[in-house]
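During the second year of the project, the team shifted from modelling isolated chains to modelling whole assemblies. The rationale, set out in the original proposal, was that interfaces cannot be judged from single-chain predictions alone. As a representative example for this report, we include one of the complexes processed in the last quarter. Its constituent sequences, exactly as entered into the pipeline, are reproduced here:
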Amino acid sequence: MISLDLVRATNTRLVKAHPLVAVFVGAASGIGEFSVRALAAAHGTHGKGLRLYLVARNEAAAKKILVECLEVCPSGQFIFVKADDLSLLKNVDDVSAKIISLEEQEAKAKGETARIDFLVMCQGIVNFGYGRQETTEGLDITTSLLYYSRMRLILQLLPLLLTSSLPARVVSVFGPGTEKKGRENKIWPDDLSLRDPSHYGFINMGDQIAYMKTFFFEYVAKKYPGKISLIHYFPGLVITDAFHNKKNPRWFRWSVTLLRPVLGFVTVAREETGERVLFLASERFPARALKDESKLEEKGNHIGIAMSSDDVVGGGAYRVIWTGERIPTVPAYEKHRKDGLPEICVNHTLKAFEEIEAGRVFKD
Ligand SMILES: NC(=O)c1ccc[n+]([C@@H]2O[C@H](COP(=O)([O-])OP(=O)(O)OC[C@H]3O[C@@H](n4cnc5c(N)ncnc54)[C@H](OP(=O)(O)O)[C@@H]3O)[C@@H](O)[C@H]2O)c1
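Output from the structure prediction step:
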């Protein structure tokens, strides 16, 4: 486990070494909010410069957070970007265009290069068995928020991510590691959208998203070596508004309320959660090395360099648990890779984007 002291020291070093442009999506509550607050606090008055975009639907909540951030980080620039329902890719495209346009204006005014150094995506809902609900674009709402909308956002923001000199870190907060031993076959290459009701479910959806995100992140990391690092992050159990959502079954909400006194022992605290998300921007998670660079050594610095999902030290696509350590892939990945699943998943995703962009309803 990476100790919290080391996390804090690393975060302080980061903000003192680099001026940062950061984008947080789905950050008017929960883990996104904690991460925004952690970056503002770490930057404080001694950071090298911070421009932070908070993307959310809830304007009042977002603006309150940003006002409070400015109090702890008066030298920072905090910008709210209004989003609509991000389960629709059309809205993802619109908000991406807004972010690019705002960042180009802000950077130009300061004589800087427009860029994004740190992108953190937290948009999501907990779907406890209320089944597949389709968007007008043909995607399942829950899967779209947790997977398609996020992959689309990365591709749409690539022009700015690729100009980061950090290089850019992209974090998707959800849950790698559900595709455990014994669940190897819970992926259906000819039904990646889980349209068959017997395939759809809370656990299966988690597996499917974990597989697809692992393969999509590896695809992007390899396509842009030296430029972008992508991290699928499991934050541990963090008590947020998501647990009290009225859509969750009553038994679940009651359990959270009843167990509250003991939950403190098994949950990750809010402040620590934000600090650990910020740590993902550290040099422990570099972009994949360029071919002509010498192979990175695992103990290259005191926080080490992480092993990527495709078993390359510093390979650019990571699966990480809240302790800062790797969530390894299960042996089934080897077979799935041989069977061409990575290409099937990436092609499925790109086809969904192509169809929806062309105004058609995605049917695969
Ligand atoms: N908390 C945990 O223990 C835990 C554990 C594992 C994984 N995660 C993952 O971490 C992420 C954040 O969860 P959280 O616990 O911080 O929950 P949260 O506080 O409910 O945050 C989720 C965010 O997503 C936004 N959102 C929901 N539906 C949206 C939509 N249709 N369009 C745009 N934005 C939407 C919400 O914004 P609005 O306020 O506008 O609805 C909210 O700010 C989720 O993906 C969750 O699966 C959490």
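Residues 26, 28-32, 56-58, 83, 85-87, 122-125, 145-146, 173-175, 234-235, 237-238, 240-242 surround NAP (CB under 6 Å). Confidence is low (pLDDT under 50) at residues 292-300.
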